[in-house]
Amino acid sequence: MSSTTREVVLGIGAGIAAYKSCDVLRRLQERGYCVTVVPTPSSLNFVGSATWEALSGRPVKTQVWQNVDEVPHISMADNTDFFLIAPATADLIARIAHGRADDLLSALILASDVPKLIVPAMHPKMWNNAATVDNVATLRARGFIVMEPDTGRLTGSDSGQGRFPETSAIIESFDAITGNLQDLKGKRLLITGGGTREPIDPVRFIGNSSSGKQARALALAALRRGATVHLIAAHMDTSGLGDVSITPVQTALEMGDVLNKEFAACDVLIMCAAVADARPVQQSTGKIKKSNLTSIQLQENPDLLAGLGTLKKDQIMIGFAAETSDLVESARSKLLAKGLDIIYVNDVSNGAIFGKDSTQGMILTRTHSDIALKEVSKDALANILLDHAVRQLG
Q1: Contact present, 17 and 165 (Cβ < 8 Å)
Q2: Taking every annotated instance into account, which residue ranges of this chain make up the domain DNA/pantothenate metabolism flavoprotein C-terminal (predicted)?
Q3: What is the pTM of this model?
Q4: Pairing mode, if any, of strands 188-194 and 268-271?
Q5: Coil, helix or strand for 287?
Q6: Which of 36, 94, 122, 199 has the highest CB neighbour count under 10 A?
Q7: Running along the chain, 394 residues long, what does each successive block of 10 average in pLDDT?
């Protein structure tokens, strides 16, 4: 099993409903799952590998004969936390029920003992056929979760039970299986996001390239998991955050004032904002003429994290580090010096990460259980970090 508890195999059966699983894939990614798509060879007649690779950002394999040296049906099974097979045709259900392993998907299922959700989609006559009824009963008896298909219009003029369920119902069922529900209920999360700006004059400032996208992902993920969320937002998009409480700030000092006021009441602090290290000694009330803008005298901003570390009681503190060299060493030093429990560090050389929808880096903890993350969505990272927070909260 993977160390992130978010690795999902999305299995695709050879039914016309395969195209609907493109939306299922997107919704899984939005909820922070890391998804590898494994289609059956026949399903590629409906949706091709190029589509799945483009949407998932990962290679797509269908046969155990691909990359044989990696023994994919074992290595992938060992690194998968959950299976979602959608759509599951009558043929695929039959092969799984009888322990067949004649393609990569069926071999993976046979080699894995993690939770599996099967979403049938087929003609009503096939769904109600005695063979399918028996196969579904067999799978349920073995611990598979098999959804009931919806009733409604199918291909052509046919109608009845066998329709692919709505994406929202599939995701709700999958969340129930994975435990991705309300595990932060009753907890208060304080999150900082965006980038502070230190005014030089009315039109210029000292700032950084942080977009606040990671803080948005964290706030939404925590909200979905039942937390009360307070976001201290510095120059970032805060639209569409629902019930998240938002305090906008401009500068490092303003952010520090809000943090000092709210920190004692939170259970988890996530310092995701890029805070300016220094500010001008003097701020001009009028625009400085270009000819006079020859030098700026700076003074150091207070270290917000280090200050909060001295006030820490039972809170879990998560920090971020953006580095261009010596990533792990720099992050480990920051983790210890600032009283953090968890830190995420990434390499921002050449403008990487800032403003992007994906990220890659390292998660470090005080127990030295470091986790290297290859490119994942910021939604996925948000949930991985929250998983760690939940564990440390007990």
Answers
A1: no
A2: 184-390
A3: 0.65
A4: parallel
A5: coil
A6: 122
A7: 69 96 93 91 96 94 74 77 96 97 94 94 96 96 93 82 94 86 89 95 90 93 92 94 95 96 96 93 89 88 89 92 82 90 85 72 83 82 90 86
pLDDT of residue 69: 63
Distance of alpha carbon 227 from alpha carbon 219, whole angstroms: 9
- Whether 292 is catalytic is no
Selected catalytic residue, list 135, 180, 208, 301: 208
Q: Is 357 helix (H, G, I), strand (E, B) or coil?
A: coil
How do 358-365 and 371-377 pair as beta strands? antiparallel
- Are 104 and 112 contacting, i.e. CB atoms less than 8 angstroms apart? no
Q: Which 3 state secondary structure label does DSSP give 303? A: coil
Extract long-range pairs of 133-141: CB within 8 Å, 24+ residues apart: 134/97, 135/90, 135/93, 135/94, 135/96, 135/97, 135/98, 136/93, 136/97, 138/97, 139/93, 139/96, 139/97
Give the pLDDT confidence score for residue 4 in this predicted structure: 47
- Helix runs in the chain, H state only: 21-30, 49-56, 72-78, 90-97, 104-111, 124-127, 130-141, 167-178, 213-224, 252-262, 304-309, 327-337, 378-393
Q: Is 196 left (phi over 0), alpha (psi -120 to 50) or beta?
A: beta
Are 52 and 39 a contacting pair, CB within 8 Å? yes
Q: Which domains does the chain have, with CATH numbers?
A: 7-178 (3.40.50.1950), 188-393 (3.40.50.10300)
- In this structure, the strands spanning 145-146 and 116-120 are parallel
Q: What is the pLDDT of residue 28?
A: 92
Do residues 341 and 347 touch, judged by C-beta distance below 8 A? Answer: no
Return d(Cα 170, Cα 27) in angstroms, integer: 10
d(CA 231, CA 292): 38
